[in-house]
Fold each of these.
Amino acid sequence: MRPFTFSKARDVSSAISDVTSHEKAKFIAGGTNLLDLMKIDVMTPRHLVDITNIALKTIEENEEGGLRLGALVSNADTAYHEQVEKRYPLLSHAILAGATGQLRNMATDGGNLLQRTRCYYFYDTDTPCNKREPGSGCSAIKGYNRDLAILGTSEYCIATHPSDMCVALAALEAKVNVTGKDGDRVIPFAKFHRLPGDTPHIDTNLKEDEIITSIDLPAKGFAEHYTYMKLRDRASYAFALVSVAAALEMDGDTVKEARLALGGVAHKPWRKPEAEAMLQGKPATRGQFQKVAEAYLEGARGYGYNDFKIELAKRAIVRSLEQAFKMEASS
Amino acid sequence: MKNEQIGKATSRVDGRAKVTGEAKYAAEFNVPDLTYGFVVSSAIARGKIKSIDTSKALAVNGVLQVFTHENRPGYVWGDEKYQDKDSPPGSPFRPLYQSEIQFSMQPIALVVAETFELARYGASLVEVAYKQDAFDTNFEANIEKAYVPEKYKSTPPPDPRGKPEKAFADAALQIETEYTHPSEHHNPMEMHASVAVWEKDGKLTVYDKIQGVDNSQQYIANAFGMDKEEVRVISPFVGGAFGSGLRPQYQLFLAVLAARELKRSVKVMLTRQQMFSFGHRPKTTQRLAVGAAEDGKLEAIQHDAFAETSKFEDYSENVITWPGVLYKCDNMKLSHKLVGLDVYTPLDMRAPGGTTGIFALECTMDELAYKAGVDPVEFRLKNYSEKDQNQDKPFSSKELKECYRQGAEKFGWSKRNPEPRSMKEGHNLIGWGMAHGAWEATQKEASAKAVLSPDGKLTVSSATADIGTGTYTVMTQIAADTLGLPLQDVTFLLGDTSLPKSPLEGGSWTVSSVGSAVKAACDKVREKLFKLAQQVENSPLKDAKFEEVRFTDGKISLQQDASKAVTITAALKQNGGESIEEQVDSKPADKQDNYAPYTHAATFVEVKVDEDLGTVKVTRIVSAIAGGRVINPKTARSQILGGMVWGIGVALEEEAVMDNNLGRFMNHDLDKYHVPVNADVHDMEVIFVEEKDDIVNPLGAKGLGEIGIVSVAPAIVNAIFHATGKRVRELPVTLDKLL
Amino acid sequence: MENNSPALPPKQTVKLRINGAEKQLELAPWTSLLDALREHLNLTGTKKGCDHGQCGACTVLVDGRRINSCLTLAMMQEDKEITTVEGLAKDGELHPVQQAFINHDAFQCGYCTPGQICSVIGLVNEGKAKTLDDIRDLMSGNICRCGAYVNIVKVVQEALERSETR
């Protein structure tokens, strides 16, 4: 870990001025990923601005009849919030599928969006990695890539975004409210995270001086038909090989609206609205679900160790949609 | 009756220390004026350090020194000076010895600073330029270059018996398989750590994570040219080891080096990532060719292992000896070859060889049982071996048949439909599988001392270790039992080179070896006490013979008439206010030579496999164990439960994955190297079958540290076959292999 | 990587409230709560098993909630009530969860145990574990390499029953 200076911010504006007035400064909240990476010199900020005392810790109704999640609400408090459990059980389940009781108590909602990839090579400073050190090369493409991406990859990076929460937020079409030195703006969830392209070192479209203040959930929560399915290498405390957030709005056996987001397969939660639209007005049958699964994985590419994810993702989509439709308890 | 302590499900005597945080592990001895060392690891797998620039690290205020091969003092260089009690044949790794890089993550520098954070920071500032050489880390690519070592560390493969090739060719049923077990890392929860305390007179007290303090002491004395008397090694608590603490690891050398050079006390704890930089269970491919008659009676077994080792030491373990122990078969040929790679030397890891070999053997036998159309338990009964055919010796005891019977009954095995894919529940295919296993029940030489003080308190000691196995507790029980004292009057000391010698704590031999020494030392105290009791004024035991008395409840009394008794404290008064002190060296009795002592297990498993998604849940495990006399059913059960959890890890999760482009294990942390978590574990049941054995050692007890694991992984893999009809021959069985 | 290593930041005064006692330390910002406990306060009951939030051995309670002390800075935990394993027994009497760990032999080597114990207490405080599978999942943040999970689950069941009858 490199040395750094440290300050505590009282409010959003002082946090922003603090972070802009220091070289290589970062906000710290839960710290669960930032300190993890600082200890191995993957991230080397010279100044940390502790934002945990800022009043962004409430969950409230927003203007559109949904919920506004304060950026500093813990993942645990979000997942167990009465309104979240009732109106957005997909989100609640997704959060609880991630990390552990301890980590969820520490990690914040804003911080969850800013998690960095868990790629083996990103975490090992003795290996080339374009995300960590632009231009050094990608070790994963021809190396060990079991956990890595099959969609939206580039020749520079095949990292995945590790979050479960974000997969649900993508399906729910949340909005991210941010404040920077130039004022406030709203980033639709689909635009928040980026694909690696030739700039894999940039994970999101958040600017250096910007701070996430809250996340807006739209009124529609798909509380009647949803599933969050996470497939991983052990039953708990592991990142997803493939995860699926599936949400359906049904009219009897006919799908009115479908939302589907995949985790563990790309540099961001993966959505394909045109494939979701294939279900609109269609009966909820296995055959239809299979078509959507095929469409979702169109263009997917394996890199050896992770080839299996293509088939696994298809099967997971079908199963998730079936479960969301029937709302049976998952096993 | 006798045996009031032995056989009792006593709670751990060190339990309170462990649940309050008072138990101190190696890195927790924060002596005054302590400094911290942080290890710099090599980025490459093979080559040379062209240059190493430590100036930036040294410029940091608070960094005291950076040790590298360039400034390391000479000391001694001979291989023999670096060999420890668990070294395989070869040339041991010598830290900071030369510019040559022999494996990825090799320690190449130690930064010592006033605080941990400064040392870690300093380590990040050390700049290294390498000359990279070509390296071999690809096991598959080198398997055909496998060689027979000049000398085996393990038991050399026995000579072939009968005519294995011909018998195989003539057999009605033939099966040839190839099974692969990956590299695995021990990953005890406590990282390896040493605190080298610089004493005023130049002597060292070292707190080390080790499975035998004598080994660390000898290693330091040899490598630094010191007298053993100048080095005291202490290790009261070990946060798990599973074999990783059998050899002194490099942090010990580095801490001692720094302490001697700086004349300061130094703490070095490896990082979790660095826990992947030394010994591990070797990747092993096994080829089996087994022939049987129509009815499943075995006619030929050929079992060949190809196992990873380093380029500098020939590590081997007993992978292929198990057919000769577990199955009666007159035609057998066994071989074990090594695949030399640019990795650190493999190291014994919980049931070394057994875990690997019994997995391949038991899965192959399951395949053969299917081919013969014989129930797997029936198949094993049909081929039951009454002796260790490798040594041609009868077993000292073997209640494996009873394990089958009780295990099968508890599990409900008789309801099994042998047809694969015959049980289903929703999306889940249900499978039932079984396997059996064995492990050696060896006794080694060991010493122990017993001191009974005038107030009736007994202190027994031996320089062994308790790595979670329950040594503190069972030794206390054995001692208390022998002298008829309440547990709270007995203290057992271990983990200190000032105590009587003990073998390394491993191989499931501690209860047998140290337990026998403890008993022998206490037996001597007993004899003395009896004589003293006879000297008590008007002693009711005056005319009694030693054989006629018993020691219970702090009293020595006539077996026939408990009212004729002398209290131990009264007897002690005859000793002139002195303690009774007895030290013994115990060794196996000669009669053991004629027998093969083993523990045995039969394990039954239920799995649920999601038909579409390939996820496996181990819903039930029943293991029946024949392990001689169980000293403490509570800690013994925990040992077996732990073995089952390891079995789940072996079968489904654990694999250190080598990136052959970099020559490096890439999943080197606990996020990416998966060990079982609580949610992976469901119903587990342990049965101890009664087994009498008066040959194995004076206690009749066998060690249980390893028998719990060996049969679990194959039973799981066999259950997965029964569930799915898919035979996965490469561990771990991750979901992709079942899609 | 930058060439000129930055100057070391000055130490700051950090006030921590641990096991009911006020502790004042002079620390550089880079000291984790875990290292502050183990190396600066000699409270070595809290264990370091990975230093990266991948094992749970460092679990402590902060305002009654379980967290990984390795992934937070000591400076960020001022004005909070920190409880470590050393603070659980009262007047020599073990906390019921500590006693239950002994009774059920819910450990072997003991290294993960303090973290497991704090985690059980935190889990009970959370009040979300209803089923056996909930317990197993919510205790999965504490790895036990010795494999004492079956017995740990028994401790949790007992602790939950105790909290219900209270």
Amino acid sequence: MAQTEKFVLNMGPQHPSTHGVLQVQVELDGENIIGAKPVMGYLHRGIEKLMESRTYQQCVPFTDRLDYVSAMNNNLGFCMAVEKLAGIEVPERAQYIRTICCELNRIASHHVFIGSLTNDLGSATGMIYAFRDREKILDLFNIICGARMTCHYIRIGGVIADAQDEFIRKTEEFIDYVPQMLDEYDRLFTGNEIFQKRMQGTSVISQEDALRFGMSGPNIRASGIPYDIRKIDKYGVYGDLDFDIPVGRTGDNWDRYMIRIGEIAESAKIIRQCLDRMPDGPFMAKVPKVLKPAKGDVYHRVENTRGELGFYIVSDGTTKPYRVHIHRPSFINLQALDHMCRGMVLADSVTAFATIDPLMGEVDC
Amino acid sequence: MHNGILYLAGQSLKELMLPVIGSELIVNLIMTLICIVILFLLVATSALVFTLGERKVCAWIQVRIGPNRVGPWGLLQSTADMLKLLTKEDIIPHGIDRWLWVLSPILIFIPAAMVYALFPFDDGVIFADVNIGLFLLIAISSQSVLPFLMGGYASNSKYAMLGGMRTVAQMLSYEIPMVIALMGIVMITGSLKMSAIVEAQSEVWFIFLQPIAFFIFLVTALVESNRPPFNMVEGESEIIAGPFTEYTGMRWALFFLAEFANLLSIGILTTTLFLGGWQGPDFLPTQLWFWIKAFLMVIVYQWIGWTFPRTRMDTILSFGWKVLLPLALVNLLLTGFGIYIFRWLL
């Protein structure tokens, strides 16, 4: 009788499909996965600690480096937390510009999701198409603030520069292009038999499990729980806007993919509303050069591309935060990897990892 | 009776040499040597063409430009690639099975080049027109399983091992539907001889008589030559590069030489078996028809490969055994009935 032996395969930190530096120790029985253990910490830079020795304004660029493919959302989270702490009122125009930028960045981040997912499924073509469209958004950021990825555009009290006419015109052009873009994705992979076969019914996370893992963002919505901070907290101008939250049913890889596609369309809807309603006025509140919030603490959360991004800031009344803790959605979502991989085959581990869509900058912080 | 350009060229060369050398045996020997050299040149050229061609086709599908820096239109890209690979350090990892590891890239090249001896390139131009041609061809090409396993086993790497095992599983299980699908052609032709198969298509191509077999062959050829979407061997997202993971420089290049040789040979094979080989309307020379068809098929294979995501290993195996094999058997049965009815009508 033939005997088979279990063995451990170290995927990463140098591996083509761990986008970022994550190591996954996959325990295998032939091609079947018995367990997957994510080992993180390869990108740890101690951002929380670094923030303690910087002034509040100097902390903002660090947030760019958390989730570097959706930097705007991170800027927003930190700035809103500080504004809440210091009691700064943000002008309405700034709020609309912030929302436009955040939603644009959400689309760009989902492009990276689609790109890396299709690349992991072995179709480099999909990646090129997604990144081609992402480039359009990065060009928009280039126009509005001069930076493309780590923008540092949203500042405490507003935004650093006004939205020019060119930005608004080109954003409108992009929003008009979105349906055509999604149609192309549908033809290229959503309708593809091999793609569907690999995604449907694999790595299922049930509602209970999603809650148990404390997941958030598109991953929990794919499991059928309409949990979106934009709807719950209605921060910024989200309360005035009309948009839906795509919700999945089964919580498999396919749902997690379709949620993202749905969110791109919804984000486009939000941006169009913002462009229509954007009032004139100042884009920056009067914020003192030396910001000294009163003693106390604050927690503020926003809906990052990957889920609930929360900043807990403790102030001791000086110019620097006493303590910052960042609730990173990728870190928490990544816990589910082992659960998702069990009972699947080796090729599915890559798909599972891609559909959780963790970003190592955020996981390691 | 034969009137292809290559055939006439060969004959006139023979006639030129005969009075000079005198002995017909030596002339035949020299001709054989020339043929071997030409075949190897062909295989080498295919690699040269496809290092650029593959990247260009891939780039067109991916809305990119592709290589365009080295030489006009990137034409010298293959040369640049070769130079780069030659100057690479030859890393021999620790703990390998030295002999198997060294032999694997060499052995993989032999069946890939050997099958070219059995292709009818033109009217009367076939290196070895043996009467078991198709059988021999499949027998030779199935030898390419072993080097993959050797490389995978000898590399002392888990990725390579997994890749090697995958290759064996997928190649062995797809050989059976392929052979059974091709049996339909053999039944119609009544011969395994490659030249006879081409001549049998002088009136109607086998793609019209054997559409099911064509479909099965299209899929199995992709699997056998490890083209995407069935390139499980180097499923780069999970097992990095499979059996090739630990190879560098020219050793690695040999694997790819074999892969490109295989790509061209499945293009030629499809042309020969289903698209009438070198035959075509008279306004173009037969030789040209052959290469047009072969390269069109190669582009079709590349097109399929660069559009679809990779399939999963278990899906490939279950598809092969549960769908393709019964389909091939049904095709065999239908062909048998078809031939019977055809004869009865006559």
